[in-house]
Amino acid sequence: MSILECKGLCKSYKAGVPVLQNMELSIPKGKIVGLLGPNGCGKSTLIKIVAGLLVPNSGGVLVDGTPIGEATKAMVSYLPERTYFNSWMRVHELIDYFADFYEDFDAAKAYRLLEDLSISPGSRLKTLSKGTKEKVQLVLVMSRRAKLYLLDEPIAGVDPAAREYILGTIVGNYDPESTIIITTHLITDVEQVLDDFVFVSRGGQILKQGSVEEAREENGCSLDALFREVFRCSESC
Amino acid sequence: MFRKLLKYDIQAVFKYWWIAAVITPFVSLTAGAAIQVINVDYTSYGAIQTLATFLLVMCIFALVMFLTVSQILVFIRFYKNFFSDEGYLTFTLPVKKTDLINSKLLTSFIFNIASFAVLAVNVVIMLVVGVPEEFFDTRNWKILFDIIAELLREINFYGFSYVVLGILIFCALYIMQDLFLAVCITVGACITRKHKVLAAIGIYYGANTVLSFVIEIFSLTGIFSFVGMLSNVSEGVIELSIMLAMIIILSLLVLCVAGLYMLECYMLDRRLNLE
Amino acid sequence: MAWTFNDRTPVYLQIAERIRNEIIGGAYEPDSQIPTVRQLALTAAVNPNTVQKALQELEDEGIIYSRATAGRFVTADPEKLQGARDAAAKKLVKDFLSSAAHLSLSAEDCIKMIEEETK
């Protein structure tokens, strides 16, 4: 069974410009999947739809066989590109907040991860640097035992050391019971962490989908090189 | 889930509200002192008393503004929680949209009651400091109680129902105002990507103007035809008609509240557009 | 530090090679336990399924064996280890000679240079 099923998904913003045109996608369970494509091809829009933040104009999305709603939000752990904290809380209050609303939240794990990062639970969110805020957010998202993790550009705009930490956390959190979807345009950094990949181009069209290892073997090159080839062609053809 | 949302909403507003609340006694003390100064028997009405009067007016204004500040804090919380970056967290929580809306409405209600209570305490402070002899003079209180007792004795079925309906209408009006503002903010935030606040303000003033116009026309025609009908009927019918009118107004308000509520739900459900 | 991989061969084979070299080089005593899939995945910053595949490869070669849920251990069989060492050595020499040939160096030139270096 797949964890995510999209059928005939269409979404356009006000300008009448369709961001997603009849997108069909199926993601199997228990894998780390990379949703890879150039900027503006609809990756973030798709993720937001799955997270329940946007409503598609038409088409359906099922998470573990359930349509998007209250039930799926309890199964899905979403890490957006921006930090979404309020300004008045301290770190430990935010942990309590997550523990309050999410049954699958593991507060002990969150405290442990924060300790590894030397982030004091008593610090005010307001006073943390941007990089630290992003790490705290990652810790909170990954401390849930969700069925589906949606990580939207988790390593863009992040220094190499933090990048390693983030990828390490993703790998360390791997659980055959859950699926991790990572969107990014930084393929080199991410390819060795992925099981499967999906190449997405403008309008949400799926150009290629499959196992990373098989693709590397078949084409005798890295996923990054394959990406460039596939998208160079799609731009000019 | 609703209770949890309520807990955090109240917490968030309280963090800033209590600061304003704590300042108010100082304002009312100042007002009380100003009253004292005004009441002193100077041989001539001098500059000091003019200043004191001015100060008193400012203090009363500040106390009334406390109510407004309280409302503003509630709506800032509403806007931030839904339509700023925090919205990414709010709308991915496994909660019903109705719970989110209800929590905000109840928070607004609670803080209004709290603000009124604070205001009442401050009026007492002002009177105690300003006119202590009159305040502690039991004769004045007796006069007040006598008036109230007289009114209560006069009350009959109609009087009672007027009061009840009046309270209900007041509550409905109040909820409607809240929802109206919320809907304006929501619509403004959902249909624009930038300048959400500006859009909300624009929609508020626009809708407000249109609605006021409509309401004025309706109420003027209503009143005129009403008065026309009543000019040649007996007293009992008048009282009944007034009660009926109040019931009609209440029903219309309830309909408006329901309509606005559903509109808010619809906007959040289908038209949410976080950037 | 995350491990880096080249484009030429599948990642799981490169991981297998790296672990094989560590074992041959004596980093692990015979019958001692090697890190788990999870630990290796974290250290290398690689997908755990890929690591699993690599370890499976080594298991098939007989260099490591798994003990139910206790984990994976280095073989105590000296023949297997020697065989792996020989194969790795052969590959090393082959690669070296092939690279040297690209520089127009003959086998004799190579031997002479090795003798000089080791004096």
Features:
heterotrimer, B: 275 residues, mainly alpha, 2 domains, C: 119 residues, Arc Repressor Mutant, subunit A, 2 strands
Give your account of this protein's structure.
- The complex is a heterotrimer of chains A (237), B (275) and C (119).
- With 237 residues, chain A is of the alpha/beta class.
- Chain A contains nine helices and ten strands.
- In chain A, the strands form two sheets. In chain A, strands 6-7-8-3-9-10 form a six-stranded mixed sheet, with helices on both faces. A four-stranded antiparallel sheet of chain A has the order 2-1-4-5.
- In chain A, β4 and β5 form a beta hairpin.
- Chain B is mainly alpha-helical.
- Chain B has two domains: 1-137, no CATH class; 155-275, no CATH class.
- Chain B is built from nine helices and no strands.
- The relative contact order of chain B is 0.10.
- Chain C is mainly alpha-helical and 119 residues long.
- Chain C is 61% helix and 5% strand.
- The longest helix of chain C has 25 residues, at 78-102.
- Chain C is globular.
- The termini of chain C are far apart.
The assigned structural class of chain C equals mainly alpha
What oligomeric arrangement do these chains adopt? heterotrimer
Q: Biggest protein-protein interface?
A: A-B, 25 and 26 residues
> What is the CA-atom radius of gyration of chain C, in angstroms?
17 Å
Report the CATH C-level class of chain C. Answer: Mainly Alpha
Number of domains of chain C: 1
Structural class of chain B: mainly alpha
What is the N-to-C order of secondary-structure elements of chain C (H for helix, E for strand)?
A: HHHEEHH
Number of strands of chain C: 2
Helix content of chain B: over 70%
Total count of domains of chain B: 2
Shape estimate of chain B = globular
Helix count, DSSP H or I runs of 4 or more residues of chain C:
5
